[in-house]
Design goal:
The chain is α+β, with helices and mostly antiparallel strands. The protein has three helices and five strands. Strand 3 and strand 4 form a beta hairpin.
Length: about 110
């Protein structure tokens, strides 16, 4: 699934339905905010889904698998996703994504 597929799913979820343009703009905003918070070093957590966290990596020597040559790799940062226990349980049981969405509050 990609952002476009997710936006299409959002268009039919709510009553009255969202336009594709509004759904896509909402997703762009949400993912942009997650990225902004991660870049600033904050952890992002969505209860029931999971959390994203920046994990530093150490500098060191690594082997190039094609040439077997040792190369120096600088320290960097990686984004790590930790799924919530509820999400892990849903995936393990095969029920993931089958929640009934609630209508937005008005």
């Amino acid at each position: 699934m990609n952002r476009r597929d997710l936006a299409k799913a959002l268009t039919t979820t709510f009553d009255p339905p969202l336009s594709f343009r509004d759904a896509d703009a909402t997703l762009k905003f949400v993912f942009g905010e997650i990225g902004t918070k991660l870049v600033s070093g904050e952890e992002v957590s969505i209860p029931g889904f999971g959390r994203w966290k920046i994990r530093p990596t150490k500098a060191g020597m690594r082997r190039n698998p094609q040439t077997q040559e040792m190369i120096k790799v600088p320290a960097s940062q990686r984004v790590r996703f930790y799924p919530a226990t509820a999400l892990k349980a849903e995936v393990a049981s095969g029920r993931a994504g089958r929640r009934t969405p609630r209508a937005p509050r008005r």
